[in-house]
Amino acid sequence: MGRLIAFGVIVAVLSAFIGYRIIELQRRALFNREIGQNHLPNCELLKGLEYGSEDITILPNGLAIISTGLVYPGMPSFSDGPGKIFMLDLEAEKLKPVELRIGRGFDIGSFNPHGISIYTDEKDQSVYLFVVNHPEGKSQVEIFQFVQEENSIMHLKTIRHELLHSVNDIVAVGLETFYATNDHFFANPLLRQLEILLLQPWCTVIYYSPKEVKVVADIFYSANGINISPDNKYVYVSDVLDHAIKVMEIQENKALHLVKSVPVGSLCDNIEVDGDTGDLLMGCHPNGAKFIMYNPEDPPGSEVIRIQNIHSEKPIVSQVFADNGSLVSASSVATPYNGKLLIGSVFHKALFCDLK
To answer: Annotated active-site positions, please?
Structure first.
């Protein structure tokens, strides 16, 4: 009888724990949030990007590099082939995405691009593209050289490491050096399900160089987008389930020290930094339930959040765009250029608007 009572108590405690965690997960994933319309002027949907534009980065000359076709566990996808990288000239009179040809020696058939970053060599101005790749569910980083004249990228290197087990996004800081976010703590798929219930701030940022690979921060519930300040002194990380952007100061040993956490009120994905103003712009998911449990009759919305004066005592956080999913669904990135804003999505369209 005593054992039966003890077993009943254990079951009750476990049920209460799971119930509490489910409620907490729903709160953190903003399952009950609704969003209104807050459109920017002169928005234009871009043709040719039918399977998303998950990450976008823009070169100073107005060339946007776009990753598309991401297939990722737990997220909707409609791509029927390998992922691709596109180029878009924002200075052109007519906006037309051009697929970048990938040189020989790279497995195009399993290409599954996620986060991207650009590094320009100061010596000869060569441009290198860093791409998070998930071939067959794996996690690795590809380094390409961008050859604009040929509309192509040439594969140089594949980087794999046990610490890069669940990479989401990346910011390049050298020819083969970068910071990357792991959006899960566990590598094992079964343990990841348990991780969701535990909801602990275990996710990491990894520093990678050919000479040293290490964890430099491990305070995130779900580390997603990452970028660097124009002066290269701070790294910004989007902690999705904490609804915040973490400002991390780079130490001499490349470790990251938390300076502040700026609440944004949404599930923000990738981070782009305006090189002129230092403003941060994020493509965000206003409601996690609609994003994960995709329903074409009630599609997930899109939201763009901007942070101004992020290093001041009172950063200014504002919503610059919002849509209920009828125009663009599941926004993941928002990149400013010359008074315009290019908004990308995980699996839907890309939008080009005037930025107020």
So the answer is: 114
**Inter-residue contact 327 to 39 (CB < 8 Å):** yes
Which residue's structure tokens are 């890069």? 164
274 near 248, Cβ under 8 Å? no
Cα dihedral value 72, 49, 335, 115, nearest 10 = 30
Beta-bridge partner residues of 180:
170, 206
Residue 300 pLDDT: 97
Walk me through the domains of the chain, giving residue ranges and CATH numbers: 31-354 (2.120.10.30)
Please state the separation of Cα 203 from the chain's center in Å.
Answer: 14
**The tokens of 11 are what?**
């079951």
The pLDDT assigned to 77 comes to 85
Alpha carbons 39 and 62: distance in angstroms, whole number? 23
Q: What percent of the chain has pLDDT over 70?
A: 94
Q: What's the Cα-to-Cα distance from 274 to each of 179, 271, 339, rounded to whole Å?
A: 19, 10, 11
**3-state helix/strand/coil string of the chain:** CHHHHHHHHHHHHHHHHHHHHHHHHHHHCCCCCCCCCECCCCCEECCCCCCCCCEEEECCCCEEEEEECCCCCCCCCCCCCCCEEEEEECCCCCCCCEECEECCCCCHHHCCEEEEEEEECCCCCCEEEEEEECHHHCCEEEEEEEEHHHCEEEEEEEECCCCCCCEEEEEECCCCCEEEEECCCCCCHHHHHHHHHHCCCCEEEEEECCCCEEEEEEEECCEEEEEECCCCCEEEEEEHHHCEEEEEEECCCCCEEEEEEEECCCEEEEEEECCCCCCEEEEEECCHHHHHCCCCCCCCCEEEEEEECCCCCCCEEEEEEEECCCCCCCEEEEEEECCEEEEEECCCCCEEEECC
Q: Is the pLDDT of residue 190 over 80?
A: no
pLDDT at 9: 45
Mean pLDDT of the chain: 92
Give pLDDT, residue 192.
81
Judge if pTM exceeds 0.85. yes
The CA distance from 239 to 52, in Å, is 22
